């Protein structure tokens, strides 16, 4: 069973008398441990697909199973539960809470997941250390560089031990050197078994992935394996058995904004 199984997804947006066919029949399997980059022109449906894969939105038609769970008929609270249990999000604009320390930003998704304070602190510290921000715990976003803010966002995406990281243009607001650092970090997570799907407009960012999809007008135009920049690093199949931080899985609850998901 693939981690992501999408069959004939369509998405139609209606705005007044206008309809936009954002997805026109997208079928896609992504196995656990893959590193996938999605490219394509502006408006081709990349973010629409990411929102459906991330259970932030439902398709108009088609089927989507995430880790075997059929998502397409779910209610809002069920979708939130799936997101909290399985998915970490990274966005172009970081979406950190201002005037709130890095540590507290990373702790927030665990507050909503019902993790006790001491364990929250311990896991947030571990996540920040993992992304190389060991000495910046008490800095607010305004006191951090763009790359450091994105590291905080990645730490926040990791703390609930997701199986899947979805990153929509994670380097879109960063300079090229910082972008490379962020991609190296995502590639390292992938080597440790994390399934990673990114959207990017830049070929040298997509080159980090092992598989590249190209979208055009709501279709998949190309789907091919490629030699990744991280070539030689063998992905370890995580299969959801080995938590990245070695804690036991926690029970889900929802709080979209705690995970950086825009309201
Ligand atoms: N909430 C919405 N309501 C109406 N139309 C939408 C909505 N979201 C997206 N669209 C339309 O759906 C199409 C696909 O948009 P989408 O955001 O998926 O493109 P994209 O490939 O992510 O583009 P970009 O590279 O610019 O981010 C576009 O025509 C867009 O205008
Ligand atoms: Mg987009």
Comma- or semicolon-separated keywords:
single chain; 263 residues; alpha/beta; 10 strands; globular; binds magnesium ion
In short:
This protein has 263 residues and is α/β, with parallel strands linked by helices. It has seven helices and ten strands.
CATH class type: Alpha Beta
Number of strands: 10
Order of neighbouring strands in the sheet with most strands = 6-7-8-3-9-10
Biggest sheet overview: 6 strands, mixed
Q: What proportion of the residues form beta strands (DSSP E)?
A: 25-35%
The overall pLDDT, averaged over residues, is: 90
- What is the molecular shape? globular
Helix content: 25-40%
Molecular structure report:
The strands form two sheets. Strands 6-7-8-3-9-10 form a six-stranded mixed beta sheet, sandwiched between helices. It has a four-stranded antiparallel beta sheet with strand order 2-1-4-5, with helices on one face. Helix 3 crosses helix 4 (117-130), helix 3 runs parallel beside helix 5 (146-158) and helix 5 runs parallel beside helix 6 (176-191). Helix content is 29%, strand content 25%. By secondary structure, the protein is α/β, with parallel strands linked by helices. It has a single domain (31-59, 73-259), classed as Rossmann fold. Mean pLDDT is 90; it is low at 236-255. The protein contains seven helices and ten strands. The chain has helices at residues 46-53, 76-86, 102-112, 117-130, 146-158, 176-191, 203-206, and strands at 4-15, 18-30, 35-40, 61-66, 69-70, 87-91, 164-168, 195-199, 211-216, 219-225. Strand 1 (4-15) and strand 2 (18-30) form a beta hairpin. Bound molecules: adenosine-5'-triphosphate and magnesium ion.
């Amino acid at each position: 069973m693939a981690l992501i199984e999408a069959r004939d997804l369509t998405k139609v947006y209606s705005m007044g008398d206008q309809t936009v066919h954002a997805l026109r029949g997208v079928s896609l399997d992504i196995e656990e441990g893959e590193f996938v980059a999605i490219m394509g022109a502006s408006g081709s449906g990349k973010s629409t697909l990411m929102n459906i894969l991330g259970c932030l939105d439902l398709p108009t038609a088609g089927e989507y199973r995430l880790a075997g769970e059929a998502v397409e008929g779910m209610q809002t609270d069920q979708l939130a539960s799936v997101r909290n249990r399985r998915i970490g999000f990274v966005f172009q604009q970081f979406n950190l809470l201002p005037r709130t320390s890095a540590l507290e930003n990373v702790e927030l998704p665990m507050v909503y997941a019902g993790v006790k304070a001491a364990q929250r602190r311990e896991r947030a510290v571990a996540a920040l250390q993992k992304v190389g921000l060991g000495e910046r715990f008490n800095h607010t976003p305004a006191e951090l560089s763009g790359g450091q803010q994105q590291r905080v966002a990645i730490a926040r995406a990791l703390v609930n031990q997701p199986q899947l990281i979805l990153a929509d243009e994670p380097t879109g607001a960063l300079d090229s050197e910082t972008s490379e650092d962020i991609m190296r970090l995502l590639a390292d997570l992938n080597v440790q078994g994390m399934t990673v799907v990114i959207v990017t407009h830049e070929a040298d960012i997509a080159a980090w992935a092992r598989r590249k999809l190209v979208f055009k007008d709501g279709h998949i135009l190309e789907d091919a394996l490629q030699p990744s920049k991280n070539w030689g690093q063998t992905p370890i199949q995580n299969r959801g058995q080995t938590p990245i931080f070695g804690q036991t899985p926690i029970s889900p609850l929802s709080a979209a904004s705690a995970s950086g998901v825009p309201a």
